[in-house]
Each structure stands twice: as structure tokens, then as C-alpha cells.
Design a protein that fits this description.
Length: 680
């Protein structure tokens, strides 16, 4: 079965799409809600573009009739209107009697006419049919004639408003009342009907867009959430579920934070929807809040999913933590019971003494309470001091001072037993270190003695081989044998010398002559001596050295041996016809010498760890087909450390890199070097 991979890029894309669909869905829903609130949205109006055939127009007319009903009622009250009613009456008067109104009315009650037409006079006798014809010429009309029991209108569903909705019915008697309404469908006036038509034409086309957007975004939201559910916790490598810092928060704490944050944001969303916004402002505000809610939701939800996938939901909960704490407490019943008993005794004694001192007002109880509290404070301080003494001793032992002991006689109880155990551990470690040091010295002495024993017969062999080489031998096979003897004896001589040198360095018998050394000059000198060897393998040296003098504090002879060893290592193991990079970087505090080359043999296969190359008898050529003892880099590293520097090896594929780091030569460094030299 093909393994499913989830890259960081695809998961990030999924998160972005999920947030995008959330914002789109929220904006679409809020836009529909705004249109419903404004009575613009109606299922029957989805395919209607004409304002005068829409339900929104009917709602506007119903509101107009309701306002007219209230206006006529206030008009008939006359001087009996209260202050609040007077304020509303003036508002209605301004609304219905403005010159550019598209809404006209004629209202007759008890032979008295009321109208908002500027070319008529109130109280003038008008013929109902004449007024109705005038209303019909405007476009939309309505006749409510209770004198002749007639009703007629061409406005959609307005009849239902008059006769089926008692709560919205206008204020007039059911007899001797005539109402004629006319609406200029050309909307030549700039009144609220004109504004309603403009708003309808601006928002109504968004009904289809909002419905489609809400459906598509909801589907995208679900699909992106499904993808994130499957992808979260997975990476390109391995089947392990990867957790982040959020997943390490206790489950109950994360849940509580999520619930509180979401509750606040939902309340904020409610406050946003309740405010008086224009449509664009409402959409921006709702989209922003929904984005914040979805970010919190994804953080919480995906964390829960990762916990379930990694099966750490229970383990990373407060309940599990408390349960394990109680289990541990009951397992360690001895310590637990002891602490609980001490605490119970403390509470009982303090309660009794406080009761006697403050309730019964016994002075002796107050004195005993002070004495008891003082004794507890003394014991607590003593235990704290003893713990600190033990801790300081353990720190010294971890730093290498294995001879450090704790004076157990000054400690008490469990602290004394702990101190004795730590003393025994320190003694055991000290014995182990002494034994290890003794073994190392024995090994070094063995190497030195054996090397000296080998050198004597080896010197004789080399001398006799040299004497044979002086003879006139005509047999080519014998000459070849002599050449092999000469090469092998010289290699064996080099090995014994390296062994002796290694044992001397290990035992600390090397005397250093620390002086100021110009590292740049030393590098130039060493590089010049290896030009011939490098040219024989067609190696190109690329140097990057400072133009100024770079001074360090070191033993010139030993430092030359270190750098020479690195150059020699390159000459032996570098791939032919490649480049060798030599660089010196001089900082404010440190000087770094580095040399890099491509190895002829595969270092990735020969040595799994770059640090192995500096161990004794380890060589880049594990088949040992090249000359060398395998001690060169080990000797170079040991000498560098003795001079106060750092020697590091790095391997990247077949690229071999060696670096030597020394402090920049200064007065402080010179003083430290001199002290180190005197100590040695």
C-alpha cells in the first residue's frame, strides 16, 4: 500500500483554505441575515429583480401604513398629545408632508379630509372616485372605503396586511372611514421609498451569491477539516505522530482556555451583530471575529486529534497526573504516612494551642504556641541547611572533586543516611577513577617499553638493509626484495616512533615552549614544503589567509607538527585532481585554521562517526592499503589540547574538514599560558 505523505506546505495550504472558507461562510451568512433583517431576502424574491414586485416593497408599504396609522391617531388627538407623542407627531409630519414624497394619502373621517398633497386643502370636499383616479395615475394605489364597503389595490399582498393581521391594522373606525393611497412608481421624489429601491437593487443581487457562497464554503470547510484531521501529526519521515508545545499542555487546561476564549469571542460576535452597522462594516467585523474563532478552533481541535492519534489524551491530562501522584503516594506508604502523621500532629497541636490562646485566652497556651512554632521553624531551617550541604557536595563530586566528603556527624535522621551513602558513592567513584588511571598508565608504559624493545632490532635491520643496498647486486628480483624490506622497515620505524610519541603525550611527558607564533607564516612555510607532494597528485591549493599578522600563543615546533600532520593527511588520502581549501579566520577572541579536501575513499562508509578519525589506530582507509600508523590525527589532537587549543574533525559525505582553534594572543592569554607552562 502506498504511503500517504503530508508535507508542511500542503498542511499550511489546508489551514489557509479552512480559514478562508470560514470567513467566506460567515460573511455570506451575515449578509443573508442583514438582508433578512432589512426584509430584502425572501425565498419568493430570489428570481425577482423588480423592486415593486418584491416582498421587500410590500414590507416597506406595510411599514408606511403602520406609520400613517400612528400619525393619523396623533393628528386626531390634537392638543391632548403628550410630549413624547408630540415629538413623534412632528417626525411623522416631516416624513409624510415633505414635497418630494412618493407616498400620497387621502384620509376622510367624519367628513374631514387629511392629506399630504400640497395642492389640496384639508377639509375641502373631494369626490372619492376622483381621488382614486388620481392615485391610480401615480402607479400603485389602494382604496379602503368603509362608507361604500369597497376595497381595492394593485399592491401585492397588501390586502392581507389590512384584514389578516389585527396587530398591524391601521387606526380608524370601521364605518365612515375612507382611505386612498397612491405611490409614484417612477419614484421621482427622493424619499425613503427611493432609498429603499436603491438599497434593494444594490443588495438583492447578492442573495444568490450569498446562498451559493455559503453552500460552497461550508463544503470546503468540511473537506479542509477532514484533510487537516488526517494530516495533522504526520510528517514526511516515519509513521510517528509528532506533537508540538500545544499538545504538551494539560488536556483540561487547554479545554478550559478554549471554552473561555470561544465564549468571549461568541459574545463579541453577538455584540457585533447587534450594533447598527452599514453592510460593509458588518461583514468586515463579522469576518474578523470569525477568523479569530476559527484559529482558536483549529488549535484546539487539531491538538485533540494529535493527542488521540499519539494515544496521549489520557496521559497528558490533569486527572492522569493526579491519579499517578496518588498511586505513587500509596506505593511509598512509609514516607507518605510519615509526612501525613507529622502534618496531622502539627495541625492538632496548633489547633489546640490556638484554641486555648485565642478562645479561652490562656496565656500559657499562647506561650506554648510560640515555643512550638519556634521549634518547628528551627527544625525546618536545620533540614533546609542540611539539604543544601548535601546538594553542594554532590555538585562538587559531579565537577570531578571525588575526594569531597560530607560531615555526616553534623546531620540528623534521613539526611545522615543520605550523606553516608553519597560518601560511599564518592569513594567508589574515586577508586574507579584511580583504577582507570592506573590502567591507562600501565598501557602507556607497556607501549613505551615494547616500542623501545622493538627499536633496537629494528635499527639493526635497517642498517643491514642499507649495507645490502650498497652491494652491487645484479639480480632484479633480489633488488625488489631489498626495496620491499627497506619500505616495510621504514614504516615499522615510523610506527614505533609514533607509539613512543603517543605514550609520551598521554603520560604528560611533553615539555612545551610556549611563545608568540605567527600562524600565517607557519601555514605558508608548511604549504611550501608540501607543494611537490600535492603536484604529484595534481591537487590545487586554494588559500584564504588574512593580509595581516595573526599571532597566537603556542609551541612552534609542536604546532608545526600538528599542521604538518594535516597536510600530510591530505597528501595521502585526498582524491587526485581536486582542490584543497586552506583558510585562517581571525576573530576578536579566537583564530581558526581549517583545511578541507575530498577523500579518495568513501568516508561515509569507512567511518560512521567523524570523531572516530581522531582515535588511535583509526585511518580513513580501513583496508590499510596506504602507509601510516593511524596515530597521526590522534597525536595532532592531543598536542593541540596540550597547547590550549581545540582540534575538531568534520565529515560531510566524502568531504573531510579539520579545524584548529586557538585564542587570540593577548596579555591575559599570555599570563594564562605562562601559568599553565609552569604548572606542567
Amino acid at each position: 500500500m502506498e504511503k500517504k505523505t503530508y508535507t508542511y506546505g500542503t498542511k499550511l495550504t489546508g489551514v489557509i483554505f479552512h480559514l478562508f472558507f470560514t470567513v467566506v461562510f460567515t460573511i455570506a451568512v451575515f449578509l443573508l441575515a442583514a438582508m433578512i433583517d432589512k426584509n430584502i431576502f425572501s425565498l419568493t424574491d430570489i428570481g425577482t429583480e423588480d423592486f415593486f414586485k418584491s416582498g421587500y416593497y410590500v414590507k416597506c408599504m406595510e411599514q408606511k401604513c403602520s406609520d400613517l396609522s400612528e400619525y393619523l391617531r396623533l393628528m386626531q388627538k390634537g392638543e391632548k398629545r403628550k410630549s413624547e407623542e408630540e415629538r413623534r407627531y412632528l417626525q411623522y409630519t416631516n416624513k409624510f408632508k415633505q414635497e418630494d414624497s412618493n407616498f400620497c394619502f387621502w384620509y376622510k373621517h367624519n367628513d374631514i379630509w387629511y392629506t399630504n398633497q400640497p395642492d389640496t386643502e384639508e377639509g375641502q370636499v373631494f369626490d372619492t372616485q376622483t381621488i382614486l383616479m388620481e392615485a391610480k395615475t401615480m402607479g400603485d394605489y389602494l382604496l379602503y372605503d368603509m362608507e361604500n364597503k369597497e376595497f381595492g389595490t394593485n399592491m401585492k399582498e397588501l390586502e392581507t396586511y389590512f384584514f389578516d393581521s389585527y396587530g398591524n391594522q391601521m387606526y380608524w373606525p370601521l364605518e365612515d372611514v375612507v382611505l386612498v393611497l397612491g405611490v409614484d412608481t417612477k419614484l421621482s421624489g427622493r424619499d425613503d421609498l427611493y432609498d429603499a429601491k436603491i438599497e434593494y437593487e444594490r443588495l438583492h443581487p447578492w442573495i444568490k451569491v450569498s446562498i451559493a457562497g455559503s453552500i460552497i464554503s461550508l463544503m470546503g470547510w468540511i473537506l479542509s477539516l477532514v484533510y487537516l484531521t488526517l494530516a495533522t501529526g504526520h510528517r514526511d519521515e516515519g509513521e510517528k505522530i509528532h506533537l508540538n508545545f500545544v499538545d504538551r499542555i494539560k488536556t483540561e487546561i487547554l479545554f478550559a482556555v478554549f471554552v473561555i476564549s470561544i465564549s468571549e469571542l461568541v459574545l463579541l460576535m453577538g455584540r457585533v451583530s447587534s450594533q447598527s452597522w452599514n453592510v460593509s462594516g458588518l461583514l468586515v467585523a463579522s469576518g474578523t471575529v470569525s477568523l479569530m474563532i476559527d484559529v482558536l478552533f483549529l488549535i484546539f481541535y487539531l491538538s485533540m486529534v494529535r493527542r488521540m492519534k499519539a494515544e496521549v489524551m489520557w496521559e497528558n491530562s490533569l486527572a492522569c497526573w493526579l491519579m499517578r501522584g496518588f498511586e505513587k503516594m500509596f506505593k511509598e506508604r512509609t514516607v507518605t504516612v510519615q509526612v501525613l502523621i507529622e502534618f496531622a500532629i502539627h495541625m492538632i497541636v496548633c489547633f489546640l494551642l490556638a484554641l486555648g490562646a485565642f478562645y479561652y485566652q490562656y496565656t500559657i497556651c499562647f506561650i506554648l504556641l510560640l515555643i512550638f512554632s519556634g521549634m518547628e521553624a528551627y527544625l525546618l531551617l536545620r533540614r533546609t541547611v542540611e539539604h543544601d550541604q548535601i546538594f553542594q557536595t554532590v555538585e562538587k563530586i559531579t565537577e570531578g572533586a571525588l575526594d569531597t566528603k560530607i560531615d555526616a556527624e553534623e546531620l540528623h535522621g534521613e539526611d545522615r543516611k543520605l550523606a553516608e551513602a553519597i560518601n560511599n558513592i564518592g569513594a567508589g567513584l574515586h577508586h574507579a577513577v584511580d583504577e582507570s588511571t592506573r590502567n591507562e598508565r600501565m598501557k602507556a608504559d607497556l607501549i613505551t617499553n615494547v616500542s623501545h624493545d622493538i627499536k633496537t632490532p629494528l635499527t639493526s635491520i635497517i642498517n643491514y638493509v642499507n649495507l645490502i643496498k650498497l652491494e652491487d647486486i645484479e639480480n632484479d628480483r633480489v633488488k625488489n626484495y631489498i626495496q620491499i624490506l627497506d619500505e616495510k622497515s621504514q614504516r615499522l620505524k615510523q610506527l614505533t616512533e609514533d607509539l613512543v610519541e603517543t605514550s609520551r603525550i598521554t603520560s604528560g611527558n611533553v615539555k612545551l615552549d610556549m611563545q608568540k607564533i605567527d600562524l600565517i607564516e607557519l601555514v605558508y612555510q608548511t604549504g611550501g614544503e608540501f607543494n611537490e607532494k600535492f603536484e604529484s597528485k595534481e591537487l590545487t591549493i586554494v588559500t584564504k589567509l588574512p593580509n595581516t599578522e595573526v599571532t597566537i600563543f603556542a609551541d612552534g615546533r609542536q604546532l608545526y607538527r600538528v599542521i604538518e600532520n594535516l597536510y600530510n593527511n591530505v597528501a595521502k588520502y585526498a582524491l587526485e585532481k581536486t582542490r584543497v581549501y586552506v583558510e585562517v579566520q581571525a576573530g576578536e577572541e579566537e583564530v581558526v585554521f581549517s583545511i578541507k579536501n575530498v577523500s579518495e575513499k568513501s568516508l561515509a562508509l569507512e567511518n560512521s562517526n567523524a570523531g572516530d578519525l581522531t582515535e588511535r589506530f583509526i585511518r580513513g582507509d580501513s583496508s590499510r592499503t596506504t602507509e601510516g600508523s593511524g596515530l597521526g590525527l590522534s597525536i595532532a589532537k592531543s598536542l593541540t589540547k596540550l597547547m590550549g587549543g581545540k582540534f575538531e574533525i568534520g565529515v560531510d559525505g566524502d568531504l573531510f574538514k579539520a579545524t584548529i582553534t586557538f585564542p587570540v594572543c593577548g596579555e591575559k592569554q599570555e599570563f594564562e599560558k605562562e601559568a599553565l607552562q609552569e604548572e606542567r
